[in-house]
Specification:
The chain is an all-alpha fold and about 80 residues long. It contains 3 helices and no strands.
């Protein structure tokens, strides 16, 4: 009787399939896209020369960063139906 219970516990531990994982492949792709967008936004914000209040630094870059964070949050909550 004890051996049968031990085998059941061992087989239950080995059943860790990809469906049981928290994130799928799509989640990781979306997270990578969001990280790339955030990095791109910070690169757009950087620079030594030029006006600090130009369109690229003051408007475009913060929008890209916020969109990147938004996609990252959506990637965490995304579940395949």
């Amino acid at each position: 009787m004890k051996n049968k219970n031990i085998k059941n516990v061992e087989t239950e531990e080995k059943k860790n399939t990809p469906a049981d994982l928290i994130f799928n492949k799509e989640n990781y792709i979306l997270i990578a896209i969001s990280m790339t967008m955030v990095i791109l936004g910070f690169v757009l914000m950087s620079g030594k020369s030029g006006d600090i209040y130009d369109f690229r630094r003051a408007t475009l870059a913060p929008i890209v960063v916020i969109l990147g964070f938004g996609i990252g949050i959506a990637a965490i909550f995304y579940r395949k139906k």
